[in-house]
Design brief:
There is one protein chain. By secondary structure, the protein is an alpha+beta fold. It has 2 domains: 121 residues, no CATH class; 157 residues, 2-Layer Sandwich (Heat Shock Protein 90), CATH 3.30.565.10. It is built from 10 helices and 7 strands. A hairpin with a 3-residue loop joins β6 and β7. α3 packs across α4, α5 packs antiparallel against α6 and α6 packs parallel to α8. The longest helix is centred in the middle third of the chain and has 66 residues. The N terminus and C terminus are likely disordered.
């Protein structure tokens, strides 16, 4: 029985966007100013600056609110214009060093403020000359005073805002790196356990069925080539299920007809990103604690559901009657998976355990990135036989 290679695991491991493009985008500390959250933040900053200027001028009553409205409108135009320009040049700034990108960004903000200020002066003078609107009190006596005040203020505000974005970006980057390090460490803890159990399976087959043991060694080589290629990185659900199917095939060679797995994953998108070795340990625990102790064996059910923006996968196995739980890292594996899901997805991750006298069930859930390929009724994936 020849092992079936995991060709699609190694060939489809490249993400949709190149790693170089992603690193360029992620290295820029400037946010995407076209997003709703960034626009709201800019509007709030604008209003705070306008309020501070109006209070500093010392107006009272109606005069204060008129001055606040004028300042808000002027600064808002300057802010949104600068945000639009920074959004357009963000890919260029991402390829520069932080000091150069910062200086260039401040220069662009100053240029935008100068253009808007000059336009305000020109329109104000035109409307005042045509008596359409009275701009007395809005502009200073001279153009130089108006421009110099606005440019100086833009440098101070832009410097403070960019400093805030830089510190926030550095903090977020450090948190992500720490999470990646913890995921890698947790991954390193679960893989030796997986290798130990796999080698035990091969050792058992060597004594009873040498041909099956040889096939299991080939399966194990394919499996580890797929699962150890990028330690600590997420893989597609398709890759994880292929690894799980290989492990199932190895255990079927040892347990024979005692082991049955019912795959019900027809509607699950396979491009969902998951930490490696997430589902396989659940199947391993189900076999070790549920199927192997039962003389008659049993059926493990693996079913997935796509609801809203979440994908949930449940692994359920029967339990032996009148038998104490077997030792061997059962709780360690579950805690490991739970921690890696939390690190990868935060509060959006789901991990639930439901245990009764007759069954043991584990549910995991992760965010849905979009529609992908589907699993066939027998559990095979895009023609990859299991």
């Amino acid at each position: 029985m020849a092992a079936k290679p995991l060709t699609s695991v190694t060939e489809s491991s490249a993400p949709d966007r190149s790693a170089a493009d992603q690193s360029v985008t992620d290295s820029c500390y400037l946010p995407d100013f076209s997003s709703a959250s960034a626009v709201i933040a800019l509007v709030l900053i604008t209003e705070l600056v306008a309020l501070a200027l109006s209070v500093a001028r010392g107006g009272t009553g109606t005069e204060f609110f008129v001055d606040l409205a004028r300042s808000s409108l002027l600064i808002l135009w300057m802010t949104l214009t600068s945000a639009c320009v920074l959004t357009l040049v963000r890919p260029i700034l991402a390829r520069r060093s932080i000091p150069v990108a910062t200086a260039f960004a401040i220069g662009l903000v100053v240029a935008c403020v100068a253009v808007v200020s000059e336009l305000v002066i020109q329109f104000g003078q035109y409307f005042s000359a045509t008596r359409l609107v009275d701009i007395s009190g809005v502009l200073p006596v001279t153009r130089f005073e108006f421009l110099s005040r606005n440019l100086l203020l833009s440098i101070l505000v832009a410097g403070g805002v960019l400093r805030y974005y830089y510190v926030t970006h550095q903090w977020r980057t450090n948190v992500e790196r720490e999470a990646e390090s913890r995921i890698t460490a947790l991954q390193a803890r679960i893989r030796p356990h997986f290798l130990f159990n796999s080698m035990n399976t091969i050792a058992a087959l060597t004594r009873t069925d040498p041909a099956a043991a040889e096939s299991a060694v080939e399966d194990l080589a394919d499996l580890f080539r797929a699962s150890l290629s990028n330690p600590g990185e997420s893989i597609s659900l398709e890759q994880e299920l292929e690894v799980t199917r290989v492990y199932q095939r190895m255990e079927e060679q040892r347990l024979g007809s005692r082991l049955q797995v019912d795959w019900q994953l027809n509607d699950v998108p396979l491009q969902t990103r998951v930490p490696g070795l997430t589902i396989q340990p659940l199947l391993e625990n189900a076999i070790y604690h549920g199927i192997e102790p039962r003389a008659e064996g049993g059926t493990i059910t693996v079913w997935g559901v796509t609801e809203a923006d979440m994908v949930t996968i449940t692994v359920s196995n029967p339990l032996p009657e009148h038998s104490s739980p077997r030792s061997g890292g059962h709780q360690l594996a579950l805690d490991n998976i739970r921690q890696r899901l939390e690190l990868a997805y935060g509060r959006r991750a789901r991990f639930e355990v439901d245990s009764a006298a007759e069954y043991f069930r584990v549910l995991i859930g992760f965010p849905l990135p979009g529609a992908g390929k589907r699993v066939f009724e027998d559990g095979t994936i895009q023609g990859v036989a299991g």
